[in-house]
Each structure stands twice: as C-alpha cells, then as structure tokens.
Amino acid sequence: MTQHTPSDLAFTHAPIGLVILENRIIKSANALFAEIFGGAPQSYIDAPLEALYPSREDYERIGARGLEAMRTTGRYADERVMRRRDGTLFWCRVRGQSLTPDAPFKRGVWSFADLSQERPLVALTTREREVAILTCRGLTSKEIGRELGLSYRTIEVYRARLQEKFRARKLAELVAKLSGMPL
C-alpha cells in the first residue's frame, strides 16, 4: 500500500483545481481540475495547456500578459474563458505562482476555479472578451484602447455591444454581471 504525505493528499483533494506546469505543459493535475475540464487526472500528464484555451490566439495573448506580470511579481491572476475537453466554453478564475522566478513559466503551481454557476457564458468575440476582462479590471475606455491599440470610441462601441448582450443599462451593471456579483 502506498503511503501518501499530507502535502500529496492536500494537492490531490484540494477544493480547487490545481496543476503543476512546466513550460505551460501539465505535469500533474488534481481531481477537481480533471472534474472541471473533463477526464481523469492522469490523462492530463504531459498535456499542453493550450488545448484548454478557446483559441491559439487566446493562449498566446494571455500567456504574454501573464509572463510579463510574473517577471515582476512571480504571480498572475485573471478570469477568462476556458474550454473543457468536450469543447464547451466556460468562465474560469485562474491564479499562478512561479516556482522559478528567473524563468516564470519554467515551473509553477496554478489553480483553476469554474465560475459557470456565477457567470453564465454569453457568446462573445475574442475582442469583446478582451474588452470585458479589461473593463472588469476597472480600466477606462481610453486605457483599454491604449492596451489593445484601438481608439477609445471603438472601445465604447464594444462596451455598448456588451451592455446589450448582458442586458445591462449602465456600465456599473455590466461590470456587476461580468464579475458575477449579485445585483
């Protein structure tokens, strides 16, 4: 019979999805991570994290943003749309801690929380998702425009579309709906 250390048991049975990543490749996954994304924990060993993003563009863009933040703090956190193995998309809270500060993606611990119950998915374009995420971070239209290389008026158009899709009358109501806060 195999003896499990308390830390092995804590990782395996944590009440949040956990993975150990090496260069964005899954080296270990716990039970809740596998439940969230589908499959068994063992089926994720040596799987590229890219397969769980809606698109390669999302994988590269979010990865670049995360790497920049981790070079400064060693940590990264966001809420984003992810893809389950069956292809369905869902909102996910993601947090990471690098274990190798000089090379942030070399090895790290990442958590994944399914936000489906609090934040149902509304069909959004990639650009709408970007604007929604940056809006939730409290950025103004001008700040979002600078970050995405668009005019603030274009960002206002995207925000208006988001308000329509989420049936929000004001920006504050949109932010509340995007963040899953009770209204």
TrEMBL record:
Span of domain HTH luxR-type: 117-182
Listed GO biological process terms: regulation of DNA-templated transcription
UniProt keyword DNA repair present: no
Keyword set, alphabetical order: DNA-binding, Transcription, Transcription regulation
Any Pfam family the entry gives: GerE
Spans traversing the lipid bilayer: none
Annotated GO MF terms: DNA binding
NCBIfam families: sensory_box
Name of the protein described by the UniProt record: PAS domain S-box-containing protein
Protein's organism: Lentibacter algarum
